[in-house]
From TrEMBL:
InterPro entries hit by this protein: Solute-binding_3/MltF_N
Keyword match Signal: yes
Annotated region (Disordered), positions in chain: 1-24
Stretches assigned to the Solute-binding protein family 3/N-terminal domain: 72-303
Organism (species): Bifidobacterium choloepi
Key words, A-Z: Signal
Cited Gene3D superfamilies: Periplasmic binding protein-like II
The protein's name: Transporter substrate-binding domain-containing protein
Length: 313
């Protein structure tokens, strides 16, 4: 009986050993398959990265280089000069010049713009000290400005000087028609004074009576038209929001055809020559692709660039 028991035990051990060996063999095959799959996946990932233009490290380094290359410059627009630049009902900066600068920013290579809305005197000080690389404010080209700042060769807008009267008046259409009339007070500096004072210099025998008052609210000037205090308001179309004036006063006013047309330019601090060149290129693109015309129609209600060939500066 004992030999039979011993023999069965050996057979059982052999069968157990065979099972263990088979398990080890299957496990080794599984490990080999998984290792092969992992290797294939790694190769695929590297190939995918290469197909995109380089390794993951290369992409990361390129992104870091781009960030490092971009220089952030602070530029300024007028804080409350609708429709050029203003804060809209959503509490966001808006306006023609603001949107032009945003479009320029999208095209700039190597520069990011931080656009701030500030008071007019802060713009003047900031551009002179270099705090602002660029300022926007519907500026005309003058010899003094060309000497002091960099002006792009491409204008960012077109100023249309118009004569405004009550809707029923048709007797005031040109500067000649202002002789003998009461013109609303004007600022002693700026484009309106240059225009009217220049007219008087050329017409010594037929002068326009000028009254100067700094910072007279535009609404007060138009209110004076309704009361009969003034016959006409001389003002650039882009420098105020006619719709808001008419809504506030409950009246409609008539604007003449432009009596003077001036191109408008951004002012750039002279320390930023490369930036100025890139702004020039961006403005040329925006002009050619119709962006400036589209923004003009949106914010001014007309394509001011159709008058560009009449510009005196």
């Amino acid at each position: 009986m004992y030999p039979i028991i011993v023999e069965s035990t050996k057979q059982s051990r052999n069968r157990d050993e065979q099972r263990k060996n088979h398990g080890r063999h299957a496990g080794n095959i599984h490990k080999a398959v998984m290792s092969t799959l992992a290797a294939l996946l790694a190769v695929g990932a590297l190939a995918g990265t290469a197909a995109c233009g380089g390794t993951a490290s290369d992409s990361s380094n390129a992104a870091a280089a781009d960030d490092k290359a971009a220089t952030t410059l602070t530029v300024a627009v007028a804080a409350n000069s609708k429709p050029l630049s203003y804060t809209n009902d959503n509490g966001e900066l808006d306006g023609y010049e603001y949107q032009v600068l945003k479009a320029v920013d999208d095209l700039l290579d190597g520069y990011d713009l931080n656009i701030e809305a500030v008071a007019d005197d802060a713009e003047d000080i900031g551009i002179d000290t270099g705090k602002y690389a660029l300022t926007a404010g519907g500026y005309f080209k003058t010899a003094k400005r060309e000497e002091k700042y960099l002006l792009p060769s491409v204008n960012s807008g077109v100023s249309l000087m118009r004569l405004y009267t009550t809707k029923d008046r048709t007797d005031i259409n040109t500067l000649d028609d202002l002789v003998g009339k009461v013109v609303a007070p004007i600022s002693p500096s700026g484009g309106v004074n240059n225009l009217l004072a220049g007219y008087n210099e050329e017409h010594s025998d037929a002068q326009i009576d000028l009254t100067y008052q700094e910072d007279l609210p535009i609404a007060d000037r138009f209110s004076g038209l309704l009361s009969g205090k003034y016959d006409a308001v001389v003002i650039p179309q882009q420098s105020f929001d006619l719709d808001s004036i008419e809504s506030a006063l409950g009246a409609t006013f008539r604007g003449s055809e432009p009596v003077q047309v001036n191109n408008q330019y951004f002012l750039i601090n002279k320390d930023y020559e490369d930036f100025a060149a890139r702004v020039d290129e961006a403005l040329a693109t925006l002009k050619d692709n119709g962006t400036l015309t589209s923004l003009s129609k949106k914010y001014f209600g007309t394509d001011v660039f159709q008058y560009e060939d009449q510009a005196v500066s």
